[in-house]
Amino acid sequence: MKYLVGTVLLALVLLAVWVKVDIYRTGYAIGALQDKRKQAQQEQKALLLELAKLTSPEQIERVAVSQLGMVRPRYNQVVLVKGTAPPASEAPAGRVVRASQTN
Prior knowledge:
By secondary structure, this protein is mainly α. The protein has helices spanning 2-54, 57-66. It is 61% helix and 0% strand.
């Protein structure tokens, strides 16, 4: 009987120690994941800032002029077309012809 009681007590102590160790291990894993999340958020902020800088009109013009050799159009080079809406984003690329214009 003493052997059975001792075995049960030992099993309970080992179970309690195992649960406590598992709690600590889980806590460390949570801390590591929180650090990783914070680092990913900081990286995301940096990438969004870089995206905003690279897509700004000033940066696009700077690259167009310095790297692509483009120049601003002169006044007489600009043609304004009235009465047409820009094509929808889902529209296929190319020329859009209205049915009333075809013969």
